[in-house]
Every structure is written in C-alpha cells, then in structure tokens.
From TrEMBL, chain A:
GO terms for biological process: glycine decarboxylation via glycine cleavage system; methylation. This is Aminomethyltransferase. It comes from Deinococcus detaillensis. It holds the Pfam family GCV_T. Belongs to the GcvT family. The gene is gcvT. The glycine cleavage system is composed of four proteins: P, T, L and H.
UniProtKB/TrEMBL annotation, chain B:
GO terms for biological process: glycine decarboxylation via glycine cleavage system; protein lipoylation. This is Glycine cleavage system H protein. The modification N6-lipoyllysine is found at residue 60. The gene is gcvH. SUPFAM superfamilies: Single hybrid motif. One of its GO terms (cellular component) is glycine cleavage complex. The glycine cleavage system catalyzes the degradation of glycine. The H protein shuttles the methylamine group of glycine from the P protein to the T protein. The glycine cleavage system is composed of four proteins: P, T, L and H. Its cofactor is (R)-lipoate.
Length: 360, 120
C-alpha cells in the first residue's frame, strides 16, 4: 500500500483544534485540512441515519448580496426562480457558466427584500467570487465575502431537531424544510437553516467563527456524533445528491443530472447553453460486491458509453452503489458493465436516490 | 499501534510471517478505515517482490497491496469475501490476505523496530 499520508500547507477551519482533540484523521480536501473520519465512516454514517451527527462545513464560502438590484442580479446569474423566494427561506440553486456547464451549485437564503446570503462550495470560493463580481458590475448590488467570518456546522439526523430544541430559544420543531432564521443556540447567536446534504432532517448552524469551537463543544456535550468527509460523501451518495467536481463541473451539462427542476423558465446567464439538450444522463447503478470509483469506464454491449462519477459501498444498503454519466442513447438499459482493474463487473441500473428516508 | 515483533514489514505496510503469510499492518488498516472489499490473487500465481497482488478497498478508496516477497501464492483468505472487516479487526490474525511459498524476500523489509521508527 502507498499514499497513506499527504500533508502540505492547507487552510484550517475555526474547528481545526477541536477535530484534533476528537481524534480525527485529517486529510487535504480542496486546499483545506479537514477531518475525513473520527470513529470510522460506517459508524458515523449510521449515527446520521439513525440518530444525529454533525459535520464541520466551515470551509464552505459565504457571500452576502445586498442592494436594490440584489434580486435582479441574482435572478440573472442563477437558474432557479429567486422571485419566489420569501425572506426567511432557503433555495438550492445553480450558477450557470457563460460558456456552459456550472460555475457552482449553491444555496441562497433570503434575509429581506434586498438582502441575500449565499453558501458556495469550498473549492469554488475564489472562482465564484471572480465570476459574481464580474457579473455584478452592471447591477446596483454589493457583494461581500464573509467566508472567514463564519463557522458552519451541519447537524443532521432524525433526532437532530429534538436534540437542538432543548437548547434553542425558538421553536425549531415547527420550522419547515428550507426555513432560515436567527436564533440563540446554547446562548450563542446563530442563523439556522433547516437544510442539509445527507438525505436526513437537520439544521445547518451558522455561528461566528470565534464562537464556532464553543458551539462544537456544546453540541458534542449533548451527544452529537462528529462525522467526517467520508460519511458526508457516503450519505450524499445514497441520497443521490450530485456533488460539484463529480456530477457537476464547468464542462458537464447541468441538465445531465436529475435536478432539472433547478432550471426555471426565465432568462439568465448562459441560458442558450442550458437550452441545448444534454448528450449525457446521470444514472444510478448497483453492484453485488465490488465498489466502483470515479473514472471507471461504463460499458454497454462491449462499448464504453460513460464513466462512474461517484461510487462507494452504501453503508445503509450494504452493497456498492454509484452514479455514472452515460450517453443519452445508452441511458435506458437495465444492466451495464463497469471495468474494475481490467475486469468487467455487472451493474444494474437503479433509480436515484438510492436511499430515501421513510417519512418524505 | 500494534507491531508484532516476529513479523517483517514492507515500507508499503504489508507484513510477512516466517511461514509466508502476508497481511497489512495495524497502522495501515487504521489509516484505510472501514475495509469493505478485498480482491485476492489466484492460488498458483507466481509473484515478484514489489508486484501488485491484491487490492484492499475501504469505504473511501482502493489501495494496491504489494507482495513483500517473491514466490508462489499457495493460499488466499477466502473468508474475507464475506467478512472483509476482519482486515480492520484482526490485521495480524483472521485478517491475513494470502500465503506465499517464498523463494526470496524483498530487499527492503524492516523488522518491527525499524517499521515503528518509520511510522511513529
């Protein structure tokens, strides 16, 4: 075996010391030194599916957009319809590229009529900032990069709401999915969003960077299980959530994914590229035994028709699952071959998501 | 970190026992995390020291396993097909990978003290 250890000059979140204290194994991730696991991926995954876990997602970027043109500007640079987004609500959205593909997939939160908050992927912060500030020049909108000011902790799992409720100064249980509101949690001022990326109920806790470690320790003390990037990836894969850099990129047609609802009938940057039919389609695959990884070729009738974009053993289902981008004309087969180290293994096409919690 | 003194270790984290049994070290299984699949070589295959002979897959990644010696594969741990987690639980026991009829050990094998020094 090789490549067990990779280190370098990496950025640290405000929770870095807390991760080391919790015995995390740290790995480089998009230029950050992040916890990949604490107790083990399977245990952390199970904690989120069965009770509640928490993730440090402070490496993600936060931008604020304000001003009388904020809505018009964001309507132009995104594909979803922001005019439908009321204050106190969150919306999943895309930043389409000028030349096709996606600059990023993002979450937008409406604070008030002319103020929005945005969370972007960690590895795309600089790219998104350059893209948005370039596009904003024509609008009366002010962009602020608040990425260093916020700690962000995702509390996820069926018991998340009940656990947090005991320590919050507002009714959390009654809040609908995609709510976004200010509150106090353990006495600390926070913004809470009833969103997440695991396929479970939960809240994302925005806390001032200097109070992030105190919040983390409070959450630990009430029994939340710390979970790392490993579990985050297996959870999102089971839930069929596409991930930037895997299912999305600057060069993948965004409508290849199953998330076609993110594009609404409106004019926006790059619309002419999105209106072209995608040549590939994202499908779900299940295998009997062998885990398949990103980049492995997918075959149909002896021809390579696509490749795996994400794959792993599904801890909940107990067998390997994968997402794959395949040519549209080959996307309706029931079975494919996936090439693993020179050998072909049968994979059957299954519907996405692989896992859906019972009450949704 | 458990490093039995009676074994020899490759820099790439495989261990070799006197009787030709091969596995991966406690350090390696800990670094890999939950092992979910093991691809073993065919019995009868002749291998050279340093050659890729098996693959251990954790939830997150696939890692090549190199033979710490030259020789012939005389046995593989079939039980890992249904219980790959034994590589985590008992890396020096039931989690062994394969057994070699050794003709020549690899030149870079370390004793336990040297392996611990290299990975401490």
């Amino acid at each position: 075996m090789t490549n067990l250890d990779e280190t370098g000059a990496l950025r640290r979140t405000p929770l870095h010391a807390a991760h080391l204290k919790a015995g995390a194994r740290m790995v480089p991730f998009g230029g950050w030194d992040m916890p990949v696991q604490y107790a083990g991926v399977k245990a952390e995954h199970a904690a989120v599916r069965q009770s509640a876990g928490m993730f440090d997602v402070s490496h993600m970027g936060e931008f604020r957009v304000t001003g009388p043109d904020a809505e018009a500007f964001l309507q132009y640079v995104t594909t979803n319809d922001l005019s439908k987004l009321r204050p106190g609500r969150a919306q999943y959205n895309w930043l389409p590229g000028e030349a096709g593909g996606l600059v990023d997939d993002i979450y937008i939160y409406r604070v008030s009529a002319d103020e929005f908050f945005m969370v972007v992927n960690a590895s795309n912060i600089a790219k998104d900032w350059a893209h948005l500030t370039r596009q904003a020049a024509r609008y009366g909108a002010v962009l602020t990069d608040e990425s260093d000011q916020w700690g962000l902790i995702a509390v996820q799992g069926p018991k998340a709401a009940d656990l947090l409720q005991l320590h919050a100064d507002t009714d959390l249980i009654a809040r609908k999915k995609n709510s976004f509101f200010s509150a106090h949690l353990f006495g600390l001022p926070v913004w809470l969003a009833r969103t997440g990326y695991t396929g479970e109920d939960g809240f994302e806790v925005f806390v001032a960077a200097e109070q992030a470690e105190e919040m983390w320790n409070q959450l630990l003390s009430v029994g939340l299980i710390p979970a790392g990037l490993g579990a985050r990836d297996t959870l999102r894969l089971e839930a069929g959530f596409p991930l930037y850099g895997h299912e999305f990129s600057d060069s993948i047609h965004p409508l290849s994914s199953t998330y076609t609802w993110v594009v609404k009938d409106k004019q926006h940057l790059g619309r002419e590229h999105i209106d072209l039919a995608p040549s590939q389609k994202l499908i779900g695959l299940a295998l009997d035994k062998v885990p398949v990884r990103e980049g492995y070729p997918v075959q149909l009738d002896g021809q390579v028709v696509g490749h795996i974009t994400s794959g792993s053993l599904s801890p909940t289902l107990g067998y390997p699952v994968a997402m794959a981008l395949v040519n549209v004309q080959s996307a309706d087969a029931e079975a494919y071959g996936v090439e693993v180290r020179g050998k072909l293994h049968e994979a059957r096409r299954v519907a996405l998501p692989f896992y859906k919690k019972a009450d949704v | 970190m458990n490093i039995p003194s009676e074994l020899k270790y490759a820099a790439s984290h495989e261990w070799l026992k006197d009787d030709g049994t091969v596995g991966i070290s406690d350090f390696a299984q800990d670094q890999l995390g939950d092992v979910v699949y093991v691809e073993l070589p065919e019995v009868g295959r002749e291998v050279k020291a340093g050659e890729t002979v098996a693959v251990v897959e954790s939830v997150k990644t696939a890692s090549d396993i190199y033979s710490p010696a030259s020789g012939t594969i005389v046995a593989v741990n079939e039980a890992l097909g249904s219980a790959p987690e034994q590589v985590n639980g008992e890396p020096y026991g039931d989690g062994w990978l394969f057994k070699l009829d050794v003709t020549e050990e690899g030149g870079d094998l370390m004793d336990a003290a040297a392996y611990e020094a290299a990975n401490g």
